[in-house]
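Quick one: structure for this chain?
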Amino acid sequence: MDADRDDPATLRRIAEQVATEAADYLRGLPSPRDAAGGVRTKSSPTDVVTAADTAVEALLRDRLAELRPGEPVFGEERGGVEDPAAQARWVVDPIDGTVNYLYGLPWYAVSVAAVRDGESVAGAVVEPASGRVWTAAAGAGATCDGRPLRVTDADDLGQSLVGTGFAYGAERRARQARLVAGMLPVVRDIRRAGSSALDVCSVAAGRLDGYLEHGLNWWDWAAAGLIAREAGAVVRVPGPTGAVAPDDGLGADVTLVAAPGIAAGLAALARELGSAGI
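Got it. Here's what it folds into:
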């Protein structure tokens, strides 16, 4: 029975269930711009958090406590445990793409991942605006609305569509802009949609050939990174809670997700453009 309880397929169903419930709840909330005191900032004036972020995370925690009593949760808004990489069993992001949500743009998502010893073993990413449900379990593949996902067979970086995102600090944004300026003449084009979870899922679905971003947190990629890996992507993440990754010249906090045919080329380009100093 205990084995069934921790089976990735079981955890996948729970992640999908609670993420879908949270997305349904989020759709029913009033616009954050209409709610008194509904918006505040965190690390900088551009790093926003809404009342919906905290309400949705509370719902996720409550539902996981009901379905998986006693299992620690690590989340964007409330943290969770003293040693998340060792202790956390669930990693949640109530709204990935909060600025999009604030402005009424549809590209935001709820993410829930089941983790064991700091590694994702199941996860779900749900888009409230579209209703799309992305899920994966370790060794069992990835799907979107039940359809299997597979990355592109791109093998020419010059013909590749690459996603990215930017940090909230002005100085770091300027450095990131210089890196993107160096990438633009080399790749087909760059996209910046505003939700890292959905961008990583877009690599899984073949809508992007690759994705590169500095400064993501564990909750940003815990579910989406597994979905991309199970769809065949090469996935390089910083490690749980920002733990330093192997010294590959990209920088300690880089997330790189790409089709296998361009992954090495995209990493080499990033190194050449000074990724480690971003």
